[in-house]
Amino acid sequence: MSLIPFDDRDGVIWLDGALVPWREAKLHVLSHALHYASAVFEGERVYEGEIFKLTEHTERLHASGQMLGFDIPYSVAEIDQACRDVVDAIGFKDGYLRPVAWRGSEMMGVSAQKTKIHVAIAGWEWPSYFDPQQRRKGIRLKTSRWRRPAPDTAPCKSKAAGLYMICTMSKHEVEKQGYDDALMYDWRGNIAESTGANIFLVQDGVIHTPTPDCFLDGITRRTVIDLAKKRGYEVVERTLGPEELAKTSEIFLTGTAAEVTPVGSIDDQSFTVGAITQTLMSDYENTVRGRSLDAAITAE
Tell me, which fold does domain 12-124 have in CATH? Predict the structure, then answer.
């Protein structure tokens, strides 16, 4: 199946305050962000025409920019409205939004105090991050040789473009070996996350997840923790070493793109797509589509 290049599509993109034709949304080759990764972004899902947790994403975009030393020149409310305008203009019901902010081309060098901050928002239809058939039986992970950096070496609480370089490298490496994604350790050698999603381990009916001290405390991560607690599941945030996998029955990933995705194996260890994972997959699907979880629990 041939791919449709992202620079050659129909539609519109919101760029610096206005909707422009998709193919005209461009930046200069000497933009600071291209050379020095001075860019932050968000990933947002659209369900039934509504953007899930829009304002939380926009607030994080602002916070990420500030961590990189720049202020986004549009308010949270203005960006929220721009996101809605993109969805309305394109007209899709289920899809993905990518707001991004970056330093422009006024200065070229490590120092870029006087660069203009640009903002763009693009949207497209995107039904599933992982292959749906593979997702149902649990995706296959392989441990990456790259690790998440220590919190005093990178702005790990920001959704910054540069932090994803090792994610791309890790994912490409394991995909060549037939895996779906990579498991990443932190700088200490403990379990951190996958290349684009947080991770949860189920042990004897208790849900465990790494403390997010060197990676994003994802919006989907927090949503799923809340859903699990509503179900009465115990959720423990703590350090998880690789040896924890041996006593784990279920594993799942969470992220805006990944949603709740079960893991069938990591390296040579296998896991079941068990009841807790299936319940949270269903609860998350109901939540993002505006269905009452309390009503669903009561009806069971």
Answer: D-amino Acid Aminotransferase; Chain A, domain 1 (3.30.470)
